[in-house]
Amino acid sequence: MMRGGRAVLAAAMMGMAGTPVAGQVLDATYRGTMVCEKLPFTSGQMREAIEVSVSGGAARYTHVVRLRNAAVEATAEQGTGTISAAKIELQGSWKGGSRQYEAKYSGSFVRRSAKLKGTQSWTDGGKTVTRACTGAIKRPFKPFLPRAKKQAAAG
User: Fold this and answer.
1) Which of the ends of the chain has fewer CB neighbours closer than 10 A, N or C?
2) Confidence (pTM)
């Protein structure tokens, strides 16, 4: 009887080993980078910071915009999104001078991070260009997150 129980336990453990661990999406600030393809008016692909704040089922984000090698644009891309189970959907926009774009990113959380993939649809001088972006965000380990304020017990 013991051998049969061990075999079932071993089979269950082996089945779980191949299954990805669903992310635990905690209310926190997730930070990472996005890498976007080259635009006709940039010298190469861009790798910039992104910060996503999650609270409940909602998200708000900012993403650095840099069109030249050294200069960060005065305004960042900003947007909002939703969290549903382990999925994240973000959409936002940016405008600077005659250039602007609409962005959409999505991904899935695994453990404490999410991989993002999406597009930016740019308008520049009457022309539209779409470029692909990929990236990742990660939250700090749970012990390093701010603790929720405990309400004083009525007494």
Assistant:
1) C
2) 0.79
